[in-house]
Structures
1.
Amino acid sequence: MSQEVSLRETYGQTLVELGRENPDIVVLDADLSRSTMTKFFAREFPGRFFDCGIAEQNMVGIAAGLAASGKLPFVSTFAVFAPGHCFDQIRMSIAQPKLNVKLVTTHSGISVGEDGTSHHSIEDLALIGSLPGFTVIVPADAIETAQAVRVAAACYGPFYIRLCRPKLPLVYTEDYRFNLGKAVTMRQGNDATIIAIGIMVIAALEAAENLKREGIDCRVLNISTLKPIDEAAIIEAAAETGAIITAEEHLEHGGLGSIVAQVLARHQPVPMEFVAIKDTYAKSGNASELLERYGLTAKDIEQGVRSAIARK
Amino acid sequence: MSLPEEGNLPSISDSVTTSANSVDAEVFSSSASEAEMEAIAKRLRRYIITMTGKAGSGHPGGSLSAVEILTTLYLRVLRHKPSDPQWADRDRFILSKGHAAPLLYATLAECGYFPVGELLTLRQMDSRLQGHTDRTVTPGVEMSAGALGQGLSFALGVALAGRLNSQHYRVYVLLGDGECDEGQVWEGAMAAAHFKVDNLVAIVDNNGQQIDGWNRDVMNLDPFPMKWQAFGWHVAEVDGHDLAQLIQTFDQAKLVKGQPTVIIAHTIKGKGVSFMENNPDFHGKAPNAEEVKIALKELE
Ligand SMILES: Cc1ncc(C[n+]2csc(CCOP(=O)(O)OP(=O)(O)O)c2C)c(N)n1
């Protein structure tokens, strides 16, 4: 397996680079800069960094005001606190007026681990994804993170970028170019397609490798832009492989699986399976124990592929 | 029950002296007399009654209570250009209590941001005058509001941007007293003092009422001025219907350095219409045709 790199650290370093290039970039955090890694930016640009204290609603409002006045704010905290703790502020102060605020959250999903239920962000994609005009990105590794952050800075409008706590193996090489709104075919195959985001991309690739030994030939898509979704890639995969399995570190309702199912229901219905957290909350544990307990491993994806293919 | 024809409306620009300096020729900094301002305040009240009456819904009570505050701001305090709402150096007025949209619209129309006749489209399909403020459609509206509690944070962001950009605009934000039940207001209060923004002035329309009744019965805010003081603000209290006091207080706020200022304006909800004054029924209910007639008579 390739080298493991922190998405958060990459985010923090990318912010510093962007800060050097663009004096309008400002960064806001809510007393978590040591964890979200906005601390790098704070150190280099203290005058353009605002620690808002443990007050996420106010932080989002300040960011909206800065954006309305021509600044380019990046706002960071844990995914569980934004959108969770300030949904209406994001809705009314950012989404409705379509302001140029970049929300980059870390510690998403259950791979946060031991902090437990209150800190597991498994609803954030449903919440943010419900807001008209938001672009939603879930990078699969550090290389994609750096590029997605740069693209967010370059494009006008509200963005949500969801990062995880653990370091992740690289799935891309340095020459990768993130293409907003486009799915990436990570592996070709004809029997079924696994569509994955975030930490589930690496699990999807592992599952495809294992299934090959059973003679099942899986395509793998990384659909890191969750919104706007790449409908064409989904429809093409369904038409060519006849079965779709989604994989995400999020509740089954309202995230990737729901979005893909809606596209397929309208354009290209095929058997589907959903690898996601069922209608429940997870507990404390280490990340790999939790991913196993709540059905987010390569094995779970393999099972999903078999059952979707059986219904072809 | 309609607004006077536009042609018959004495527009504010008649009572305004603009600077002779060509750069500032369009800058709206008025030296309207208090008598003229009083006449304008009365006209704004008539617009509020007429437009909410026509719309059949809306919030007259909390619009009427802040008429003198907005009259003072738009006629004597703000540097703004109705012909160029996006002018970079304009002073910003942010309406946090977005339900007072009828008052803001009336004031903006009076200043010439859009035709006074457009006020009659309030709350209608495809109107630029939405039920609560929407910065994406209405010229002169700085913030989309409606969910209470968010304006102070937004205003703080605008104030910080001004400081970062070395721009000299000032930021004014109007809150309701009931709105101050919201925790976010106090997050914003703490942060504004922490960041030492002295280009930010909050005004509280302290009419003592919210929807379910008097503040002290619904959720007691006392001791209100001391709360702001404890959060690190410079506090001023005024009679919010007294133009001379308001003018003086806004002038003095410009001299405060190193901390934000809050002006607690003591007002009467529904001010100017006898049956609306201190009557929570008219918080979010428009006057019917008969009530419009009586109210306009009182406001002659
Ligand atoms: C977050 C939120 N909760 C509830 C409401 C419904 N609401 C609209 S106006 C209002 C009362 C506001 O009272 P106050 O701020 O004192 O305004 P005023 O009396 O000056 O109109 C309420 C509860 C709202 N708009 N936003």
Note: The first strand of chain A starts at residue 4 and ends at 5.
2.
Amino acid sequence: MSDTLIETAINHHQLMDTVTENKKKTAKKKADKPAYSKEMYLSWYELMLRIRRFEERALMMYGQQKIRGFCHVYIGQEAVAAGIESAIRREDAIVTAYRQHGTALGRGCSSRECMAELFGKATGIVKGKGGSMHFFSAEHRYFGGNGIVGAQIPIGTGIAFAEKYKGTDNLCVTMFGDGAARQGSLHESFNMAMNWKLPVLYIVENNGYAMGTSVKRTSNVVELYKLGASYDIPSEAVDGMNPEAVHEAVSRAAEFIRAGKGPYFLEIRTYRYKGHSVSDPAKYRTKEEVQEYQERDPVKMTERKILDNNIATEQEIRAIQEKIKEEILDAVNFAEESPYPDPAELWNDNYLQPDYPYIRD
Amino acid sequence: MARKLALRDALREAMIEEMRRDDTVFLMGEEVAEYDGAYKVSKGMLDEFGPRRIIDTPIAELGFAGIGVGAAMNGLRPIVEFMTWNFAVLAFDQIVNNAAKTLSQSAGQFKCPIVFRGPSGSAGQLAQQHSQTFESWMANVPGLKVISCVDPADAKGLLKSAIRDDDPVCMMESELLYGFEGEVPEGEYLVPIGQAAVRREGMDITLVSFNKMMIPTLEAADQLAKEGISAEVIDLRTIRPLDYKTIVDSVKKTNRLVVIDESWPLAGVSAEVAYGVQKYAFDYLDAPVTRVNSADTSLPYAPTLVDAYLPNADKIVKAAKEVMYIRY
Ligand SMILES: Cc1ncc(C[n+]2csc(CCOP(=O)(O)OP(=O)(O)O)c2C)c(N)n1
Ligand SMILES: [Mg+2]
């Protein structure tokens, strides 16, 4: 590895420290005192654990070639999904990129349907048609995982446009990666969203890297939240290893947006423990860097917080762990036992016109 | 003297040779430098040429394609790598509205010697957005040249020609076949743009294909041979300009044609080849031209749907037999 890479890696880490420092200074309540209800802590814990175990299993199944194609897991970033979901409403919409299993599970999409989708089975959340990158669930107001970097930024803006047009007070959470933040689509969307005061919450999940490229190598502006300033969008950086911090920031943003004041932009600083996708050995960063984040692991930290503060008992925690373990094993069984889609299914869902004249030479 | 090289290594040799020869040639794209290329095509090139000439870009296809166009108009010879052509869609404005139009718009005052390259086509279970072919899209545009070739020796010679060409060239490779090996000659050589190659001679039927579909096409020719049918197999190598002559000469001999094209059927390369043959060899045809394309649908993820979607040797053999009026 070259020196520049190590340097940039360290730099991302320093950024994280700044966020934590700022948080500590500005936090109204002491960081280690529980500020929320028992239910809240347990639901964060449960969701994060569900995502973690789901992803671990998915990687295992990929190793056995039950899952194919691209597979980008969310391990390390669970607190982002957890903190968003507890702060928004079921009727709000979410759209994100291909690293999306955690977001879909956060929305309440079932482990069974999500795992079956990874297996490419007919019982999957999109009937085995989308695979790892493309879960969708209209029922859960989940507008999908998008495989084209940055494409969902205007799409999320348009979903928000429709909410405003229809006169609801729903918002659209539009998530994207630090790499996507360099696409022109971000700038065009930010500008129109602000100009038209659209109810959109932009969230960049800054996990430090776009494939092998560290944030610092892509721009002079490494503190991504600053990108909002050029469009007068209120923007802040958030510690993404802590569901509480994410929840607070998203709540604040959602309140602002629902008041009709227009978009809000959060840079949530997080980390992916695994490579970009299953095939990436991640040689562009140090083991130490990964370890440092793992020491602040959102699942472990939340568990510790719950136990240290007697929010719940060890038995209650163990019960959640058992429940999740069984849920994920059941999801794998369900996926294994489900059939592949019939080949004729290829000719469905291309057009709504029932007698569309396909070319079939 | 020849040695075995994988497609990725042959492409790399082409770029390295041209960069040594001409300081105006440079490579830019996502992950091409420090990561050695998403598919390792540019492996080691940063070490030899340094960051002035091997340039990592942010994920900003429209922007860096346009930067390539501007640099080409101003005297450089950029090679712009797209991680795949699916992402080049974001850059089509610069390719179609600028690279292709510069010469005409400026009445010859400005040229645009640029190569846009990357893999095109499906690559396993990658689903709708990551599985498309783009030869026919780009080939539709006057001002562009389009190469689509996976034979390592030819791809090397064609890429070298493309880099030296004064017009903009789109080069379509294949994710699945970067490891595909072939004999590659030692030393300096070029393969001209615009010429198809006869990969296998035959008498009874002509099979025309290109890029990754050459593999099932040659497999089908083997199967047909076992049944006593002698197929001539043509690799188009270049889509624009299209080498009608090699196709027509072959059809004049075999009187029958199947076109195998991973693109969708409507307005695709297969349609153009069929048009050319009915126009220039109508009297020689003993049966209507047939084609084997991907299904006229998006490509979903599940393996059963991928199988149903893609051309394969069996589908090609079946089409060939239909054209020969063989019942089975
Ligand atoms: C338009 C486009 N260009 C390139 C790619 C290839 N690609 C897929 S993911 C990725 C990196 C994106 O990184 P980031 O936005 O930070 O998201 P993360 O993977 O970290 O979640 C790239 C370059 C793509 N899918 N779409
Ligand atoms: Mg990232």
Note: The mean pLDDT of chain B is 98.
